[in-house]
């Protein structure tokens, strides 16, 4: 078979791949290395000779014996076996700490639990490499599946199979109602997931927030033809005349996170914070909004809004038996 001469850049990439392989194997036959990389044996021998002339110059900017790679020449020339007996620069490569590796592995565990990634071999392989490549053994972490994760799996299956779903839904004003819908699109905004679906109760397209859906069930009923569905709006939250207005003090760095909820563009500086007016469909939604920005948002008015958030926070403290749960101002 005729082979095209390799370019210098290709040779460099090949050598950079070959060195870690040889170090990991310790002792390897030329034929074995050639089979592993899918190249001719002579290409392996040429690369090994190139490795033996490579290194990292010392402080004098000249190459001394210990600044170069070295191989067992007797094994290489007599037995066609490659053994690197001295290497340079490899041990200086930065390595992940045990905590960094554990954090990345936890993220990969979450991804591998998503329905579309179940059985994905690449994620498992990457987790194993992170474990082996860390400077110390990473802490063992387990990522628990949440109710939202389970619901998302049902909706993804419904979209993929073209089946209707049924669920209980709490709307913006706190009303709970059983719905049947044709899911057509799933989207995320920040930490929230939204489902665009044709609602059979309203006989129109609606956008449902996943964390307000419960009792999700996949039905055997096929969805209708919705090729003419409207595009998903860029701003999931859209105001209406029935919205409630709430005055809050916001840390300057968090102001952009509330841009979709701003009632207007007016703002006032108060004690280093920015005072703005938000619009919310219900004070129930305000609790969640404040909880998502801990320490960055303070409800100023009206008093009903302050009381709703304060009572919700105290209820959370009571569940943990923390001091301050049974008293405190409405702010």
From TrEMBL:
Coiled coil: none annotated. Residues 10-131 form the PafC HTH domain. InterPro entries: CBASS_pafABC_assoc_protein, PafC-like, PafC_HTH, WCX_dom, WYL_dom. Residues 244-315 form the WCX domain. It comes from the Bacteria. Residues 153-216 form the WYL domain. This is WYL domain-containing protein. It comes from Agromyces archimandritae. The lineage of its organism: Bacteria, Bacillati, Actinomycetota, Actinomycetes, Micrococcales.
